[in-house]
Amino acid sequence: MNGVEQVGKERRGVLSVLARADLAELADGIAAIAARPEMETLRAPEFGLVMARGRIGGAGAPFNLGEVTVTRAAVRLSSGEVGHGHVLGRERERARLVAALDALWQSPAHRREVEEKVVAPIQDRLAHADAERRAKAAATRVNFFTMVRGEDE
Fold it and tell me: pTM for the complete prediction?
């Protein structure tokens, strides 16, 4: 994997985390970034529909599950980096903040700060919520077993 592919993979991971953050986390995170450059809106937040696809059992043939509402936005930093934000639902400010944080992450001067002050805390919260959900599901697990009857001889 070359350097460009690696950065693309890392960016997809960061965008995945940012898209699942709530508005308060994003607002607090961007406020924690020191010396933010000026930002220009390239695409004001707008709503649209995306077809969600599914697979039975994760490996079956894909099928159209239905449409979901998304909001997208794009910004450009004064240093030239362009950030894009896509979030489920109709939340203009969330999409704009995701785009801004994406652009800041692409800036070498701000990447580490975005990862430490914004992405890492959100990842921790998501991991904790996932662990709680898994523990709750595991508590309801039923193990079936077969007992052999001795009179079949």
Answer: 0.83
Task: Evaluate whether residue 1 is within a structural domain.
Answer: no
Owning domain of residue 15: 9-127
CA-to-CA distance for 46 and 127, rounded, in angstroms? 30
E strand or H helix that includes residue 85: strand 82-88
Place of tokens 């998304």: 70
18-27 residue pLDDT tens: 999 999 999 9
Task: Give residue 94's identity as a one-letter amino acid code.
Answer: R
Angle between helix axes 3-19 and 92-106 (nearest 10 degrees) is 150
42 exposure class (CB count in 10 Å sphere: 0-12, 13-18, 19+): middle
